[in-house]
Amino acid sequence: MSIDLRNTNSACASILVETWRRLGLTTAVICPGSRSTPLTIAFVQASEVEAISVLDERSAAFFALGIAKQTSKPVVVVVTSGTAGVNCYPAIVEARESRVPLIVLTADRPPELRHCHSGQTIDQLKLFGSYPNWQAELALPSLEISTLRYLRQTAIYAWERALYPVSGVVHLNIPFRDPLAPIPDGNNSEFISSPLELEDFFAGIETGSRASVPQCAPTTPDSRTGGFGNPPLPTPPLHEWAQIHRGIIIAGIAQPQDPREYCGAIAQLAKTVKFPVLAEGLSPARNYAELNPYLISTYDLILRQPQLADKLKPDVAIQIGELPTSKELRSWLDRTQPQRWIVDPSDQNLDPLHGKTTHLRLCVEQLAQIYPTKPKLPSDYLQLWCDLETKVRGVVDGAIANLNQPFEGKVAWMLSQILPPGTPLFIANSMPVRDVEFFWMPSNSGVRPFVNRGANGIDGTLSTALGIAHHNQSSVMLTGDLALLHDTNGFLIGKKLKGHLTIVLINNNGGGIFEMLPISQFDPPFEEFFATPQDINFACLCQTYGVEHELIATWEDLQQRLKFLPASGIRVLELRTNRKADARWRQENLAKFVKGI
Known about the structure:
Blueprint: H1 8-23, E1 27-30, H2 37-45, E2 50-53, H3 57-71, E3 75-79, H4 89-98, E4 102-108, E5 134-137, H5 145-163, E6 169-175, H6 195-201, H7 238-242, E7 247-251, H8 259-273, E8 277-279, E9 295-296, H9 299-302, H10 306-311, E10 316-320, H11 327-336, E11 339-343, E12 357-360, H12 364-370, H13 380-401, H14 408-418, E13 424-427, H15 431-439, E14 448-450, H16 461-469, E15 475-480, H17 481-485, E16 500-507, H18 526-531, H19 538-545, E17 548-551, H20 555-563, E18 569-576, H21 579-589
Parallel strand pairs: 1-2, 1-3, 3-4, 4-6, 5-6, 7-8, 7-10, 8-9, 10-11, 11-12, 13-14, 13-15, 15-16, 16-18, 17-18
Helix pairs in contact: 1-2, 1-5, 3-4, 3-16, 8-12, 14-15
């Protein structure tokens, strides 16, 4: 450990970095710039912190988002003054909405150089509106002991606010006067000049403490508060649920630290109350099927049949986390209005349907462990769900298996069966997330789905996936052509990637999701302003970035390429499909799967 005392700026920057290192920081993503020089130097010199240079600020912020998603630890993003920070905004919005911990540092000019047309200077105070958990401008660097202590304590507080009470973004705006490079500035610090003084200064900051998203706080009948001064939590009516025969559990979008424990808790709850578990494809629950005998993966298709939807009306719905993507499920819940209980430890409102809802501010692991009740016998209602799942699953799998022509929905179906165990899979928004929900088969693969479903945008798709793959098991991304094109600067991260990412690219030359909407019947302006075909040669694009590319001609080729994933680098496996034909297939078949059952 050392503090860079070559000048005032370098000393203050290294105080911040050393504090975060002791708290558990492992990664800083740094964009080039002059005003941020003291921060860059401090992170580069810090032991045990990986400093990664990324050219594009938007890409850098999403790359940091991906790393934070897969590690559940705060990641620092460093940008210079001016519009550099503005480019981080989309990733900050996503981090806020999906509860991912980031610490964003924007360097800035000192106060005397603001509001006077000094170059590369904008108003950076509250630059990201209300999206950060906490934001502040730091004092100008000074070697006074009171300032150094202030920096240390502010860094600790910033770390805590990135994690508690709900993970999210902290923004620190940091002004620096010249000299920015670590050259003498005439100020000398006699304080913290020896190792003993340094140890005393940082005493009490335990290395690795509070390093990741907190686990659920202990919840007992005698001590049940929401933390940070929140009121007592409502008691989960597990005994009441156990008396209900027409109940469901909805396993929504989730990216838990321990997927098996999370899925096991859902399964334990289901076995206790004997409710079917309607499991979103973006939840790990479908990939730990052996744990749960009541898993339902075809609910979207089942609910497209009006008579079945009416017959399956529930009295109670227990929602774990956020609602699934399925429009059919949401419409059904809105129409039937069951009593709904939302199990999630955050402080957010997770009911976009505004139903008869009670939020239980705890996690499902607590619910399964702390409130046991005597198991009951399965109901006819549960058996009906399970019988429908078996029949519809068989019809769907048979239809997709026998489909030889290119169809983008078959890609998600195949991935569910052929990816190596435990593969991290990043799924792009628009049609890929929906095809995963429609077609992803339950298995015991342990595949870990990751998504940017906080704000549901397509920006930063590639960069986020690279962050998921960094220092991780060989990973896969499923994406359409427009989502990939929207973030091609992410390919610049390729040389910094420690790991491997296979990009399964469905190229239908446009926005396939718009083909499913009524506007598709109006052309013009549909093709030019909604489908927006770009006519890109992806082989040439990949060659520009030095990325391996292969055009996949058959389903057998795809299966062979995904059975074993490389250990390093990026490769693109491109499948070309016809978006209009794909849309017709969905329109003609999704509702038919349940007919006659």
